[in-house]
């Protein structure tokens, strides 16, 4: 397939481009920053004219696309004022999704986030692990992700055969970022993330699987590592950090509190880059 990846210069974008190329796809990256070259086009996704034109074709780069992977965003609160985060992310997503439909592209994967499910306080949870049915936005970035999912859920009906898959990634950890897990034993480590994480390469695998399994309609999948990102057993961690929230029976000792059952069942997603091995392989500072 010929696939565009927006946000291709970012953390998840780089891993996704690498994965999709390794899978044999022809990949073009769109980003506002990046090195000029055959697989890249500098596009300001806030400008609908640029987005639509670039999706239709770019001289010397591509003359049509089969699929869009939309990852570009300001990925956290606080980089710019809240309203600017919302405006950038909402405009980019509307432009990419709407532009893709106008350009005749029917397969889209978009980045959503754990922030659409109660981050950072998780004050209103009714059960754990959290699955895709749970939606709660507590800040502007999260509100954007909830709204972007809602836009996608409507747009799939606008053109026959359209498939949009929203992947709710938890905190994405790149190779080289595992030193932070030295705090894994701290009682509330990653409390604002339900104790979860996902390796960037596994997150990229989820994107690849979502493309492979695209069927008409809108679907949401959680994307997290299968284990928690903490060294406290899951039941103990949940009781301490989310007291009173019922926990499913039969969970593994260190099982994630962000359910990936749906992605496992329907996409065949199985994370392979887990923090214990990655952290053990991380060079430790000389003492
Ligand atoms: N990093 C995480 O922990 C995490 C967790 C959950 C969801 N997500 C989501 O995954 C996606 C990728 O996140 P990331 O960690 O790779 O972020 P990142 O900041 O590393 O990369 C995002 C890229 O998007 C580009 N971009 C932003 N606005 C743009 C615009 N208007 N026009 C063109 N390019 C623009 C940036 O230049 C950047 O290269 C985002 O949608 C983010 O919200 C990330």
Description:
The chain has 287 residues and is α/β, with parallel strands linked by helices. The chain is built from 8 helices and 9 strands. The strands form 2 sheets. A 7-stranded parallel beta sheet has the order 3-2-1-4-5-6-9, with helices on both faces. A two-stranded parallel sheet has the order 7-8. The termini are far apart. The mean pLDDT is 97. Helix 1 (11-22) packs across helix 5 (200-212). The chain has helices at residues 11-22, 48-56, 82-102, 140-155, 200-212, 234-241, 261-267, 275-280; strands at residues 2-6, 26-31, 40-42, 67-70, 107-113, 163-169, 172-173, 198-199, 217-223. The structure holds nicotinamide-adenine-dinucleotide. Nicotinamide-adenine-dinucleotide is lined by residues 7, 9-13, 31-33, 43-46, 71-75, 88, 92, 111, 113, 169, 171-172.
Key features?
single chain; 287 residues; alpha/beta; two-stranded parallel sheet; binds nicotinamide-adenine-dinucleotide; NAD(P)-bd_dom_sf; Epimerase_deHydtase; Lipid_A_modif_metabolic_enz; NAD(P)-dependent oxidoreductase
Gap between N and C termini: 50 Å
Assembly type: single chain
Cross-sheet strand order for the largest sheet: 3-2-1-4-5-6-9
Low-confidence segments, given as residue ranges, are: none
Instruction: Report the sheet with the most strands, covering strand number, pairing sense and barrel closure.
Output: 7 strands, parallel
Average pLDDT over all residues:
97
The H-and-E topology, N to C, reads as EHEEHEHEHEEEHEHHH
Number of helices: 8
The share of residues in helices is 25-40%
Number of strands: 9
Structural class assignment: alpha/beta
Our Rg estimate from Cα atoms comes to 19 Å
Range of strand content: 5-15%
The bound ligands are:
nicotinamide-adenine-dinucleotide
- What gross morphology would you assign? globular
